[in-house]
Write a structure and sequence with these properties.
The chain is mostly beta strands. 2% of the residues lie in helices and 59% in strands. It is built from three helices and 43 strands. It has a 31-stranded antiparallel β-sheet that branches. The longest helix has 8 residues, at 7-14. The two termini are 51 Å apart.
């Protein structure tokens, strides 16, 4: 049996009077067998040889230590692991006793981030540089050491990694994709994996458009200092001129600025070459301990060039400044904003300005235990909002309390909403009143709910009926005041029992009503968890307000209902909707069914709106969407979806999509409303994570004064670590190194 000899025996006997310390850390040593030359102190160790020093570990079948030149030569299954996780494997490796200088043959290296290198021989000076001869380099995450083919690799006569400049440079480069040669470069340099950012050219891309022609773009990124950088992306449109996007970023201790400026000389509806510009600058900051500030300037000099030249597909731009403060019991908001429409200008263009809006809300304990008081104050000036100019000052005071009883829970709510309006202007067709209007609407409600736990058909069921009597006093001003904060209202179980269920303060319906509801939940071994709710509201007094479209001849609201069935491991069904209280016509619904067959996931979504609450809202919208996806063990995935527009009793195939992907990459083809077609391939290298390919095709038949019908092809390919190439790196190619 071999006897292992450890560090101090090796240091004292083998190396005699020579210190084996490096960076004040001793070399620990072990082996199955050791022979020592007593004349010069040299040593020969065999069998599971291990040397350790300051986090560096060398393993080999045999190691020869030559004392006169203070070098060790390792042979057979040599593996050197460095503290940062880098691992070198070689047939022969020569190191000094401090592991600072390494020379190896038939070298295979895996760096800390997974980047791999193979070379005929290599030499590294720790802290300076490493030189690899006849090398193969790849950042792909694969078993490169054992012959697995990477998605791409570089084959060079020499590769140098400089630790000082954090740069990897390659000479006489042949690039291979899936083992097939695709290109040659006399020189190529890029940052290594330790670089967070560096000045240089970024990944180039190009697109081909029937309107704009061939358009290449190569971004250039410039680091200014540790907290600032800037990026320039020029565009040369084959048919329509030139443009440049400039992005500037800066960071302070508690603030950030991100600004994009677009300039160009391009074709517009006005002339062949018009100077255009736009800005989208966002500044965020923390003021004091708890104020959050956000300011955004978002404007364009011409209404369609941002969409036409693929900078932004938004049809409106919003500039704003918002300051918020959130405490445990208080909320503060100060904001101002202005909206610019990018649709073709018409007399009805809506570009509202809110200058300013000041809001405060506080929630605190009331006069008794269990009592809650809420106070709300708001003031704003709103201009050019669909023809309205108005100011409003408003306040709300509310008090609520629950009373647990022997059976059930009683409650009351009471509030008063007061508003003062100054209407400066209105559309000519509006029935609202110009001038000053004061509204005061007190409200009070008493409610009762009774949670019950029982057994039905051997199933444990929790049922909770509830009712609330609500009275809203004051004058009905819904014809005098423009409704600006309740237009998208949808009644559901969340707002059925609110005092002012329309929310906001511009639409308040005086009168009395009784709200009813019943909820239930149970668990079944076969059907899983099941829950449901049904409720409605009955108007007891006051006239029905104008502007509503539902149940105009009835004193009952629509039925509000929802249901959910969630069987274990099969599918899940959810439904919510509104039904007419006099003929059970389904006025609105949303249904979702989702499940799986083995590894295949599927879903069906149906949305339908027959009658909206407000007569001015769009009715008769119906849509059905079906989708399925499946993932395979080898990393591939497939998915497909189909959307049908069922509005107005017709069936129209609205959007079709299918995708095939590897890893996180996808390929999809779609056809959208209006005939727009899109095909997209996005592949990010799958499990090897070293390449991103984006190919997008678009056919858009939409056109107006300045937007033309187009076919476009956009192509971008990015190889990991090769997204930047700086002038200084190119200059280094001519240096002696």
């Amino acid at each position: 049996m071999f006897i292992k000899i450890f560090s101090f025996l090796f240091i004292v006997i083998s190396m005699m009077s020579v210190s084996a310390n490096a960076d004040d850390a001793p070399i620990a040593f072990e082996a199955d067998k050791v022979q020592v030359n007593q004349e010069d102190g040299s040593m020969y160790a065999t069998g599971n040889v291990v040397l350790k020093q300051a986090g560096k570990v060398l393993r080999a079948d045999e190691v020869t230590y030559n004392k006169p030149n203070d070098r060790a030569v390792a042979r057979g299954n040599v593996i050197l692991t460095l503290p940062d996780g880098t691992r070198h494997k070689a047939t022969i490796m020569e190191v000094d006793t401090e592991f600072t200088h390494i020379v190896a043959e038939t070298l295979s290296t895996k760096f800390a981030d997974g980047t791999s290198m193979k070379s005929k021989n290599g030499e590294q000076t720790v802290g300076d540089k490493a030189v690899f001869k006849s090398a193969r380099f790849t950042p792909c995450k694969c078993d490169f050491e054992n012959g697995e083919t990477p998605i791409w690799d570089l084959r060079t006569t020499s590769t140098v990694r400089s630790e000082k400049t954090q740069t990897i440079s390659h000479n006489n480069v042949r690039m291979h994709v899936l083992n097939i040669p695709v290109g040659y470069f006399p020189y190529l340099a890029h940052p290594d994996w330790t670089v967070r950012r560096r000045s240089g050219f970024l990944t180039p891309s190009f697109f081909i458009s029937s309107d704009l022609g061939f358009t290449p773009s190569i971004p250039y990124y410039q680091v200014i200092d540790d907290t600032r950088d800037i990026e320039f992306t020029p565009y040369k449109y084959q048919y329509r001129g030139t443009a440049i996007k400039t992005r500037y970023r800066q960071k302070w201790d508690n603030s950030d600025l991100n600004a994009s400026i677009y300039t160009g000389s391009v074709e517009t509806y006005k002339k062949n070459r018009e100077s255009v510009g736009a800005i989208d600058a966002i500044f965020t900051s923390t003021l004091g301990n708890d104020w959050n500030l956000k300011a955004r300037l978002n404007r364009a000099s011409q209404d369609t060039f941002m969409r036409r030249y693929n900078f932004d597909d938004a049809t409106s731009l919003k500039s704003e400044i918002v300051a918020e403060r959130l405490k445990s019991d208080r909320y503060y908001l100060v904001e101002a904003n202005d909206i610019q429409t990018l649709k073709t200008k018409t007399a009805l263009a809506n570009e509202p300005s809110l200058l300013p809006n000041v809001y405060f809300e506080e929630v605190q304990a009331g006069f008794r235990e269990g009592q809650t008081m809420r106070t709300e104050i708001q003031a704003f000036q709103l201009d050019n909002d669909q023809g309205y100019d108005m100011s409003r000052w408003s306040g709300t005071a509310q008090i609520t309390e629950d009373f647990p009883l022997t059976y059930g829970i009683a409650s009351y709510d009471a509030n008063i909403i007061g508003s003062y309006y100054n209407l400066h202007s209105k559309p000519t067709t509006a029935t609202t009143t110009i001038g000053n209007i004061t509204t005061v609407n007190p409200s009070v409600a008493v409610g009762y709910r009774l949670p019950l736990a029982t057994s039905i058909l051997n199933r444990f069921v929790v049922i909770e009926p509830q009712a609330k009597l609500v009275h809203v006093a004051g004058e009905d001003n819904t014809k005098k005041i423009p409704n600006r904060d309740a237009g998208d209202y949808r009644i559901d179980e969340a707002n059925l029992f609110l005092l002012n269920r329309y929310q906001g303060k511009d639409y308040i319906l005086p009168g009395s009503r009784m709200d009813f509801g019943l909820s239930a939940i149970t668990q079944d071994a076969v059907l899983g968890e099941m829950s449901g709710f049904a409720g409605l509201s009955r108007r007891l007094s006051s006239k029905r307000a104008s502007g509503l479209s539902t149940n105009s001849d009835d004193i009952y609201s629509d039925y509000v209902a929802s249901a959910s069935i969630d069987p274990p491991g099969a599918y899940k069904l959810t439904w919510s909707g509104r039904l007419s209280s006099h003929d059970f016509t389904l006025n609105e619904s949303k249904t979702t069914v989702a499940g799986n067959f083995g590894a295949t996931n599927w879903s069906l979504d149906h949305n339908q709106l027959t009658k909206a609450y407000f007569a001015s809202s769009t009715d008769d919208r119906e849509e059905l969407k079906a989708g399925a996806s499946r993932s395979f063990d080898n990393g591939w995935n497939i998915s497909a979806s189909q959307i049908w527009d069922l509005s107005y009793g017709k069936t129209k195939q609205e959007k079709t999509s299918a995708s095939l992907g590897y890893g996180a990459g996808t390929f999809s083809v779609s056809k959208t409303r209006g005939g727009e077609k899109n095909a997209t391939l996005i592949w990010n290298g799958g499990v090897q994570d070293c390449i991103t390919v984006t190919v997008n095709y678009k056919h858009d038949p939409t056109k107006d004064r300045d937007i033309k019908t187009v076919d476009e092809l956009n192509f971008t390919i990015s190889f990991k670590h090769l997204g930047a190439l700086s002038q200084s790196q190119i200059a280094n190619a001519t240096s002696s190194e």
